[in-house]
Amino acid sequence: CNKTIGIDSKDLSYKDKHWHEACFLCNKCRVSLVDKQFGSKLEKIFCGNCYDAQFASRCDGCGQIFKAGTKKMEYKTRQWHEPCFACCVCKTAIGTKSFIPREQEIYCATCYEEKFATRCVKCNKIITSGGVTYKNEPWHRECFTCTNCSTSLAGQRFTSRDEKPYCAECFGELFAKRCTACSKPITGIGGTRFISFEDRHWHNDCFICASCKTSLVGRGFITDAEDIICPECAKQKLM
Which residues form the LIM zinc-binding domain (predicted)? Predict the structure, then answer.
């Protein structure tokens, strides 16, 4: 009130400021603060409720204020009551356990793995280390096997058919062309070269004259029934 406090009046003081007993009121709700807890802000005094409502920090979980003596959990610029600092999925309180933040949410380690960890496309279990990528999809090394014989393909030569992986041996047996000379599969794996003529196929090493066994790769040749022969041997047969 800015009036003099007489010697017969009770003088209430706080931080070099003085009030009549009747003037010592909350700046907002005007309740008397005599013999009550109060707080000050911007050189004004407030009762506990008004101070908390306007100035106290609030929990990022429940939005309620932190009362005096309340344990506060903090991470970067955010803060929570201890029970509110919980996994957003299972609602278990984090406490002092490890957690993973993601897009403003907090996850316990177990729920984070369940929701975001890389999973094998074959068994759907989490890949914790290592693994193999095939066609941009993750596999456990032990799950990345030949479709036919189940042999592990990790670190091995393989090829695919209809989006399924096969070891070289199974692919050759199941799908590859077969050499007219040796009847073994022509896989093409590892840069294997072969010759095709009409409906017949040969490994490069098998493409030889039926008579003199000379390689015909890159040379002219003549068919003799089911055989192929070099021009020289063909001339001799005509003589």
Answer: 1-56, 57-117, 118-177, 180-239
